[in-house]
Structure formats: C-alpha cells, structure tokens
Amino acid sequence: MQLTLPDILHASDLQIARGLLVGAPWADGKGSAGSQAAQVKNNNQLPYDCEASQAISAMVFRGLERSALFLTAALPRKIFPPRINRYAGAANHYGNHVDSAIRTLADGQRVRSDISCTVFLSEPGEYVGGELTIGEPGGETGGERRVKLPAGHAVLYPGNSVHQVQPVTRGERLACFFWIESLVRSEEQRRLLFDMDMALMQLRQAYGESAATTALTGSYHNLLRMWAET
Ligand code: NI
Question: Which residues lie near ion ligand 1 (Cβ < 5 Å)?
C-alpha cells in the first residue's frame, strides 16, 4: 500500500530544519548502502549523530505521533532512525534498488524494514526531477508510480518494493527517510486492518456510535490481536 501522509512537518518545523541543513556535514551516501544498492546510489546524507539529524529526527517523530493516519496505516512497532539526504549537483540520483530487509541499530537491536517512509523537506518547485519512483513489490514490471510531494508531506510505501530517486537536474532535493517495523508483518493483513479502521471512522462520523460500530471495533481489535507481533 502506498499512502500520502500530509503535514508530518509544519511550516515552522520546516523553516528550522532548512536552517539546520545550511552548512550541515554532508557525507557520501554509499557509506550506508548494501552491495547492490551501493552500485547505484549517488547522493549525500548526514551522519546520524550530527545536530541537524538529531533535531530533524525529533521533529519527524513528533509529527508521526500526531498523525492518526500514520499510526493506523503503519501500526508501528519499531522505527529505524531517520536519515537526512540530499540530491544535488553531481550526487543527484539513486538508481533502482531494494532496501535490506533487516537493519541493525547501534545497540544491536534489529529492525525489519516492513514499510519505507520518505518525508519531503524541499518544495517540488525547488528542484527539477528527483521523483521517488516506486515499483510493484517484488519487482514485477508495470504499476510504477512517481511521487513528488510538497515539503512536510510524507509517503509510506512497501519495504519490499523496487524503487529509485530520479536524477535531480536542477536545484536541490532535501528529504528524510526511514524504515518502520510494523506490529503486523503482512502487507495484506495491514491493508485489511487499515481499510476496516477507515470505514469504521466514516461510519462513526456519519451515524455516531452504535452497537454495530462497537461490535466491529471489537472485530478490528480481535484481528489485530490475532496478527500482531509485539
Ligand atoms: Ni531505498
């Protein structure tokens, strides 16, 4: 499932983030890529421990906590720390690749990359190209989508998709990227839960609370209880 999350960062967050990124310690993005991805990765990224990374990650986490849509769509269990990246000049693209399934945190804890998320930090008009192109999970041909969102918006997409960032031919594309391990590993089960939760919300808005919405909410939680790994 691919989903847009509007306004993960507010205008005031973005202004602070952009200020922090001026003169930030950009490094070659190949440093964190697996061997397949390293062959096609050509961008810059920030070390996790720099001031800008830490501050922007904290803002993104606050934004995710505010987003009911994120919580119901991702059912997050663990989040791998956000990475800030830049596509500009000669380091301007990231060719077709798949992300590693398992990432290891500094403390040795492992995170499974069920869902990928990109938060856009630049406005679409600030750069030419730079679309995030997302293929079908598993790499089947066709069904490719191109995503270029307003600054502060985010996109969730399946962690097992083949994807790329198109070359930025003018300007600078700043973004923040991270993986989520979901309580519900299966994309299909997560999708069913998400659709059910959305439909329940619409029912409540239209008709208020009823015995039927309570029963359906019970079914939602029973399915979540059946499928979640905590
Ligand atoms: Ni990737």
Answer: 99
